[in-house]
Design goal:
By secondary structure, the chain is mainly α. The longest helix is centred in the first third of the chain and has 19 residues. Helix 2 packs antiparallel against helix 3, helix 4 runs antiparallel to helix 5 and helix 5 packs antiparallel against helix 6. Helix content is 70%, strand content 0%. About 6% of the residues have low confidence.
Length: 115
């Protein structure tokens, strides 16, 4: 009986821990945007416009923009030929997420050299 109780209690603890992380980052409509970009070309421009507007908000201190979303916006801009906007978003990612700095510093340096 005690073993079953402890197992049940630990399961509730695990579920509570998982539930508390759901609001850690702001994701906006990221998954929907990716689907539209790759599956609905006719709606791509509008989806990207909305995505970029969302990313430019920067989130809040309690719910920052999720890791990689600034860089994703930069890549979308680079694919459209807008190097200045791409650099802006790559620099935002660089500042927001120190873990990404080694890769992004090289990417930013190379893009700036091409301008």
């Amino acid at each position: 009986m005690t073993k079953r109780f402890l197992l049940t209690l630990s399961m509730f603890g695990l579920l509570a821990g998982c539930a508390s992380n759901q609001g850690l980052y702001e994701w906006g409509q990221y998954q929907e945007t990716l689907f539209v970009v790759y599956q609905e070309p006719a709606l791509k421009e509008e989806a990207l416009k909305n995505y970029v507007a969302f990313v430019e908000t920067g989130g809040t201190p309690q719910h920052p923009i999720a890791p990689g979303l600034f860089a994703e916006a930069g890549t979308f801009m680079l694919e459209q030929g807008d190097v200045d906007s791409a650099l802006k978003f790559y620099k935002m990612e660089y500042e927001a997420w120190p873990e990404s700095r080694p890769m992004l510093s090289m990417l930013i340096k190379n893009l700036e050299a091409r301008q």
